[in-house]
Design goal:
By secondary structure, this protein is of the alpha/beta class. The chain has a single domain, classed as Rossmann fold (3-Layer(aba) Sandwich), CATH 3.40.50.1240. It is built from 5 helices and 6 strands; from the N terminus they run βαβαβααβαββ. Helix 2 links the parallel strand 2 and strand 3.
């Protein structure tokens, strides 16, 4: 199966704002960023189906790729930051933030979810996706989910997940099972 992992375009969130599952809007650069994504995908195989996080910042882009034919999946949402959602990072309780940062893989923000929980739901999604009969799939989602795909495919430790660069509008290509001479995941 060939999978295109597409991160949503830039948001209208203020710089330094904590957001994961908060449903925020898109930056005024959406049309330009969308055209760049479409340009990169023009060289790619046409997906038979487009899956998306149900959050607006993903769903809006997904609808431009496959109008009216997008399937949403809750497991494709970004990590939940709980009480920290929509708070500026520099106003988050420092003790809570330090406790979380000391073990972000297993520890969750208050009323949020841990990285391990995010990874487990993404793995569940991948396992179900791989049982489908599609040859080519597009998935419009978030940086955390795309990083979890990387971990699933490469086996790097979850603790190293933030070493994986995933910018807004990035498109990655994954072939499962991988072709021997190609890396398991590569940026387009």
């Amino acid at each position: 199966m060939l999978i295109y992992l597409i991160r949503h375009t830039r948001t209208d969130a203020a710089q330094g704002l904590c957001y994961g599952q908060a449903d925020i809007g898109l930056a005024g650069t959406f049309e330009t960023e969308k055209e760049e994504i479409l340009r990169r995908l023009a060289k790619a195989e046409q997906p038979e189906i487009v899956y998306s996080s149900p959050l607006f910042r993903c769903r809006h882009l997904a609808d431009t790729l496959a109008p009216g034919e997008v399937k949403t999946d809750e497991r494709l949402k970004e990590m939940a930051f709980g009480n920290w959602e929509l708070e500026p990072w520099d106003l988050v309780n420092r003790d809570e933030l330090d406790r979380w940062a000391a073990n972000f893989v297993e520890r969750a923000p208050p009323r949020g979810e841990s990285l391990r929980s995010l990874y487990q739901r993404v793995c569940e999604y991948i396992e179900i996706l791989l049982k489908q009969s599609y040859d080519t799939v597009a998935v419009v989602t978030h940086a955390g989910v795309i990083r979890c795909f990387h971990v699933y495919l490469t086996g790097i430790p979850l603790a190293d997940i933030f070493d994986i660069d995933v910018a807004c509008g990035d498109v990655f290509q994954v072939r499962i099972p991988p072709v021997r001479e190609n890396p398991p995941i590569m940026k387009l």
